[in-house]
From TrEMBL:
GO terms for molecular function: GTP binding; ribosome binding. The keyword Nucleotide-binding applies. The keyword Transmembrane helix does not apply. The gene is der. GTP 2 binds at residues 214-221, 261-265, 326-329. Belongs to the TRAFAC class TrmE-Era-EngA-EngB-Septin-like GTPase superfamily. EngA (Der) GTPase family. Residues 35-198, 208-381 form the EngA-type G domain. GTP 1 binds at residues 41-48, 88-92, 150-153. GO terms for biological process: ribosome biogenesis. This is GTPase Der. It comes from Amycolatopsis marina.
Length: 471
C-alpha cells in the first residue's frame, strides 16, 4: 500500500486506495479432497511416533505410556508429490469396555472409512492375539492393507519380522519410527497403495475451520458428537480425555464445516507435563489455524481464570468468536441473575462476541450455532470502503475530538481499513491517540458498521500533516 501523507484532493483517491488493498489481499486456497490412510494397532506399539515420521514433523502427541491417543485425529501429509490424509487412532483392543471401548470404536470406525489401512505391530513382541484379531477383520475388508513391523532399531531384529507373514496381511515392512529406519520405503508403499481420489464422496472442498476450545471437561467433545450425530470424539467424565486436536467434517444447517475438538486448556502451561504440555501447545496451534472459534463456557459455574485465559488467547489470535454457554439445562433463575453480573465483569474484553445458550447433552439450541458462526465470519471478512469510513470518521471527530495531550490536540488526518481477518483500521494522526479514545472509536465504529462476532484492531500512525503547496 502506498504511503499516505494525510491530505487528499478528492474521493477518487479513496477508490484507488481500495483497489490497492484488494490487490494485496491473498485469495484463500481451496482444500482439495485427499485419500485417507488410517494407522491402527494395539496400544503403545508406536503408532503416533510413526505418524510423526510419516508427516516429517511432530504433530501427534507422543509419550511412553499406553493410551495417550484416544480419538481419531487427521493430519495432512505429503510424499513424492502426493498429498494424503493420515488418521492416527487410539489403541485397538477387541472386547474393551468403558473409555477403552470408546477408543476401540474410534479405531474401528477409522478402518471402515479409510481408503487404505496401515497396521502397526511391535516387532520386539511379535504377533499377539489382538494383532491376529485386527488382521482377521482387515482381511475381509476391500481396501488395501499394509503391515509395519515397528521398533526394528537394528539388523538383529530383522529375522523376527518374518513370523509376521502369518497374519496374512502381506509383506511386513520392517521400520523404526523412532530412528527413521526404512521410513522412505514404507512411504513409497503407502503412496502406491492409496487411490488417486478418496473412496467416499463426503469430503467437501474448502469448509470453514471452527475450533472448539474451553477448559477441561466443559463439554467440547460432547458438543462435537451432538453436532455430528455420531461418536467423533471420545467422551468420558474424567477431565482431559481429549489430548490431540480432532478434525471432523460436520454438516450443519446445510453447510459443511471443519470442526476441531481441542484439549482443555489448564490454568498455566507450567502446571502441565508430558502429553498435557504438548496438547496445550497444539490447542494454541488449532486456534491459530481456525477462522472462527467457539469458546465453550460452563453456564452452571462461575467464570474461572481458565475461561478468561482461553478468551485472551482467542482475542490475541484475532479470530472470529462465538461464546457457547453449555449445560444451560442446569441453570435456574438464581443462577441466571448471577450470570448477568459475572458477564458484565468477566467478558469486558469481548462484548462483541456472539452468544448462544446450549446444552450438548440434550441438544438444546445447538442448531443456533450455525447462524452465529456465519454472522461472526461475515464480520471477520467485512471491509468498509475508505470514502465511507472517512466520511463517518470526520463527523465523529467533529462531534467528539481527541483529548488534549501535552498541551496539543492530535488531529486524525485520514483512516483506512488496511486488512480483514481480523478487520484492521489504520488511523493517520498528528499525535498519539489515547487507548480510551481508540476504544471509543471502536465502539462507535461497531455501532455504525456492525462487525458482530469479530475483533477489530485499530492501529495509529503518527505523522505531521504536510503543508499544501502554493499554486
Amino acid at each position: 500500500m502506498t504511503e499516505v501523507d494525510g491530505s487528499w484532493s478528492d474521493e477518487s483517491e479513496f477508490t484507488e486506495l481500495d483497489k490497492q488493498i484488494d490487490a494485496d489481499t491473498d485469495a484463500e486456497e481451496t482444500q482439495l479432497a485427499q485419500p485417507v490412510l488410517a494407522v491402527v494397532g494395539r496400544p503403545n506399539v508406536g503408532k503416533s511416533t510413526l505418524v510423526n515420521r510419516i508427516l516429517g514433523r511432530r504433530e501427534a502427541v507422543v509419550q511412553d505410556v499406553p493410551g495417550v491417543t484416544r480419538d481419531r485425529v487427521a493430519y495432512d501429509a505429503l510424499w513424492s508429490g502426493r498429498r494424503f490424509t493420515v488418521v492416527d487412532t487410539g489403541g485397538w483392543e477387541p472386547g474393551a469396555t468403558g473409555l477403552q471401548g470408546a477408543v476401540a470404536a474410534q479405531a474401528e470406525m477409522a478402518m471402515n472409512t479409510a481408503d487404505a489401512v496401515l497396521v502397526v505391530v511391535d516387532a520386539t513382541v511379535g504377533a499377539t492375539t489382538t494383532d491376529e484379531a485386527v488382521a482377521r477383520v482387515l482381511r475381509r475388508s476391500k481396501r488395501p492393507v499394509l503391515l509395519a513391523a515397528n521398533k526394528v532399531d537394528d539388523d538383529r531384529l530383522l529375522a523376527d519380522t518374518a513370523s509376521l507373514w502369518s497374519l496374512g496381511l502381506g509383506e511386513p515392512h520392517a521400520v523404526s519410527a523412532l530412528h527413521g529406519r526404512s521410513s522412505g520405503d514404507l512411504l513409497d508403499a503407502i503412496v502406491a497403495a492409496l487411490p488417486e481420489a478418496p473412496r467416499d464422496g463426503d469430503r467437501v472442498a474448502g469448509p470453514r475451520r471452527v475450533a472448539l476450545v474451553g477448559k477441561p471437561n466443559v463439554g467440547k467433545s460432547s458438543l462435537l458428537n451432538k453436532l455430528a450425530g455420531e461418536q467423533r470424539s471420545v467422551v468420558d467424565a474424567v477431565a482431559g480425555t481429549t489430548v490431540d486436536p480432532v478434525d471432523s467434517l460436520v454438516e450443519l444447517d446445510g453447510e459443511a464445516w471443519r470442526f476441531v475438538d481441542t484439549a482443555g486448556l489448564r490454568k498455566r502451561v507450567q502446571t502441565a507435563s508430558g502429553a498435557e504440555y504438548y496438547a496445550s501447545l497444539r490447542t494454541k496451534t488449532a486456534i491459530d489455524a481456525a477462522e472462527v472459534v467457539i469458546v465453550l463456557l460452563d453456564a452452571s459455574e462461575p467464570l474461572s481464570e481458565q475461561d478468561l485465559r482461553v478468551l485472551t488467547m482467542v482475542v490475541e489470535a484475532g479470530r472470529a468468536c462465538v461464546l457457547a454457554f453449555n449445560k444451560w439445562d442446569l441453570v435456574d433463575e438464581e443462577r441466571r441473575y448471577q450470570m448477568v453480573r459475572e458477564l458484565e465483569r468477566g467478558l469486558v474484553r469481548v462484548p462483541w462476541a456472539e452468544r448462544v445458550n446450549i446444552s450438548a447433552l440434550t441438544g438444546r439450541s445447538v442448531r443456533k450455532l450455525a447462524p452465529a458462526l456465519r454472522t461472526a465470519l461475515a464480520s471477520w471478512d467485512q471491509r468498509v470502503p475508505t470514502g465511507q469510513l472517512n466520511g463517518w470518521l470526520a463527523d465523529l471527530i467533529a462531534a467528539t475530538p481527541p483529548p488534549v495531550r501535552g498541551g496539543k490536540q492530535p488531529k486524525v488526518l485520514f483512516a483506512t481499513q488496511a486488512g480483514i481477518r481480523p478487520p484492521t483500521l489504520v488511523l493517520f494522526a498528528t499525535g498519539f491517540l489515547e487507548s480510551g479514545y481508540r476504544r471509543f472509536i471502536e465502539r462507535k465504529f461497531r455501532e455504525r458498521f456492525g462487525f458482530e462476532g469479530s475483533p477489530v484492531r485499530i492501529n495509529v500512525r503518527v505523522r505531521e500533516k504536510k503543508p499544501r503547496k502554493a499554486r
